[in-house]
Amino acid sequence: MKYVKGLRCRECGREYPVEPIYVCEFCFGPLEAVYDYAKIKKALSRKTIEKRPKTLWRYKELLPIDGEPQVGLNSGFTPLVEAKNLAKYLGVKELYIKDDTVAHPTLSFKDRVVAVALTKAKEFGFDTVACASTGNLAHAVSAHGAKAGFKRFIFIPATLEQSKIVASIVYEPNLVAVDGNYDDVNRLCSEIANKYKWAFVNINIRPFYAEGSKTIGFEIVEQLGWKAPDSIVVPCASGSLLTKVWKALKEFKELGILKNLETKIYGAQATGCSPISTAFKQGTDVIRPVKPNTIAKSLAIGNPADGYYALQAVKESGGAMEDVSDEEIIDAIKLLAKTEGIFTETAGGVTVACYIKLLKEGKIDKKDTTVLCITGNGLKTSEVLNGRTAEVYQIKPNLASFEEALKRINERGR
Ligand SMILES: *Cc1c(COP(=O)(O)O)cnc(C)c1O
Ligand SMILES: [Zn+2]
Predict the structure, then answer these.
(1) Is the CB of 298 under 6 A from ligand 1?
(2) pTM
(3) What domains can you pick out in the chain, each with its CATH number?
(4) Which residue out of 97, 100, 104, 108 has the highest number of ligand 1 atoms within 8 Å of its CB and is therefore the one to mutate?
């Protein structure tokens, strides 16, 4: 069964067939998948979704594939955790963590987009997949591509964290470290994508890949008992995830799965790479590219491809953008760990810290039901905590030495 009618230019509306293309030939606008919602409405209801396996493919009619899912068969449906301790600490009523740090093969939300992109690459008949990555996409394409039997070319900035390099190369893709930042890597990859017939998940497969991000939005609604929250905070790199979370809610409304939609969408960035937040604060629609300088490397895209659309989604929903310093990111990582037992990478620190700032500014109400999208696991970027964690007590292997330490521990009241 086919539910995608074709691709459409987001700028001029020109329509294209379903092919591995991503940009409008006339106006250079990005292409987006267009669905037959009348047909989906007949095939998909809350009941049919609830009967299916707990993976992102339970919403397959709303994903841009024509046949059955082939890749990432156990991705998605991550926990939605009620964050009672963090809520109490912050004095808010109802707070949830959409916990994409776990339950995915490579421990970040990129397992969602790659499951969809590689299934589509199979449908198109590609034998090689590739990507430009700030880390998490590299892990997901390397791993899912290995399982699916693709040849893989992974391009990363040479300055990536050592732990992120290891978590890619272990799957033995062709890993290419480029002497430059992510935006340099991406520019090079666009040239390569023009020359070689590969499925670049975030370039020529991007219209399909990006749709995978909607599944976070679908899951949040289902896991709240088929209700949309008052506010959702989403970290932004290219701005694609935020744009698609908003699209997911609108699709559920369109299909009658959601009765009403009043959710506000908030975007979170690191101040060291905050082109979208800066545009929001300056009240302009022009996203000015920046040179990233932040520990939140998975969000360090200085020239965000979907920045403009993310900004529109935030404004359309009545939300806001915010950005935070590296110091605030570290504090937020530690706060989430010690209150909720969830260890997130820097991107999650950005989300939590921006939420706290938005609360303080009164832009998110303390009475709101809020969901924070925590998109990657802390073990991926544990270096950032070196020398910034609590003390480790060093003792000799005898009771007296332990009790000496215990005296100090008790003095601190931990
Ligand atoms: C890729 C990524 C995001 C968001 O990326 P977009 O390009 O904005 O879709 C958020 N968090 C993590 C951990 C990521 O790897
Ligand atoms: Zn166009």
Answers:
(1) yes
(2) 0.96
(3) 80-106+210-385 (3.40.50.1100)
(4) 108
